[in-house]
Amino acid sequence: MSSFPEVHASKHAQRTLQPLTELTDKMKPSHSTKPLIKLSMGDPTADGNLVAPQILVDEMVDIVKSKDFNGYPPVAGFNDARQVVAEYWKKFCGTPGRKDQIHWRNVLLTSGGSHAIMLAISALCNEGDNLLVGAPAFPHYKTVCDSYGVECRYFPLDAARNWEADLDAAAKLVDSKTRGVLFVNPSNPCGSNYSRAHVGEIIEFCEKHHLPLISDEIYAELVFKDEVFTSIADFDTDVPRVVLGGSAKHAVTPGWRIGWLILVDRKEVATAWMKGMDRLAQLLTGSNSIGQMSLVRALTKIPQDHVDSVIAQLEEGAKVYNRLLKHDIGLSFDAPRASMFIMLKVDFNYFKDIATDMDFYEKLLDEENVQVLPGEIFGVHGFVRATTSRPARIVNEAVDRIIEFCERHKK
Known about the structure:
Layout: H1 11-14, H2 19-24, E1 37-38, H3 54-66, H4 79-89, H5 96-99, E2 107-110, H6 112-122, E3 130-135, H7 140-147, E4 151-158, E5 164-165, H8 167-171, E6 178-184, H9 196-209, E7 213-216, E8 241-246, E9 259-264, H10 271-281, H11 289-298, H12 304-320, E10 331-332, E11 341-346, H13 357-368, E12 370-371, E13 373-374, E14 383-387, H14 392-409
Parallel strand pairs: 1-12, 3-4, 3-6, 6-7, 7-8
Antiparallel strand pairs: 2-9, 4-5, 8-9, 10-11, 11-14, 13-14
Helix pairs in contact: 3-11, 4-11, 6-7, 12-14
Protein name: Putative Tyrosine aminotransferase
Keywords: Aminotransferase, Pyridoxal phosphate, Transferase
InterPro entries: Aminotransferase_I/II_large, PyrdxlP-dep_Trfase, PyrdxlP-dep_Trfase_major, PyrdxlP-dep_Trfase_small, TyrNic_aminoTrfase
């Protein structure tokens, strides 16, 4: 009797690889006896220092107890939830005219921000097309592009200028197969927050090259003191724009899997894109029903002092990294202005036996049991990413170990 033939995975599946998961969930064991410190994480709930606002928790409990929302929600989300998200995002638009561009029917509720990313890209790009992405970039963008056979064309962001985009370099990448431009602002992994002037320059770039714009703005609320966030929705332009957002970060509920996307389309030239995203959303048959209804009741009522508390703790964590600059150890950085991360620049000329960011990542983990993330998974080299969301005492311990590590490996 012949054996059953091997069952192969689809090309779509074989092309799908999430480097964050590969590194964080499949870590090599460290030879260090010190306890593990993960500066690699993007989960703000990990230590219990950042928590969901009580009003959101209370509404979730009441909704579960009601048993009224245990069924399937509409694929696009409950109309009430879509309306609340649209109303919420209007707070980031400065004039009535711009607020009026945000229509609730152009809102889709998604299963977290990653689902929103997938819908926006896959509904816009065909296999063989390309998407311009500013790097360093959240790795999920490239993961989605690779999975769907779309070329992720990275163009550089300048670490010396608050990680602003090199739009001249981006222009050289545009061709007949370029379908759009994608940014994340405020940034994961850079911790940057663009000025209104620079967001305007990005809009002008898209106008010139007739390219739709996707902006991941999930960290919109988490800008540091004296910083102001500027949404791509707050401009008078004919460029069709998709804003990505969700409750994961400022409401500290990543596990609730509630995200959204909003198409801003003043001239209604992207209705097919919106219909495409809606159709692809049918593959998942809707996002979390009770999470949606929690947002309906609480999203616009989250107290500002809750958000301020989250921001203050992120700023406190970020300031700990300033201790690295007091030592000549081959590390430098642009101070974070938002989000939950910092990119540390590695000067390989300082080290005797570290030549790449992957070397730095692997040796630091092996010798000090501190996990950062290598820049190459974000589309750049010569950097590592660390989080600012962990309590200051934990970040301080990690910084101590990083200093010892760098001094041990200097020339």
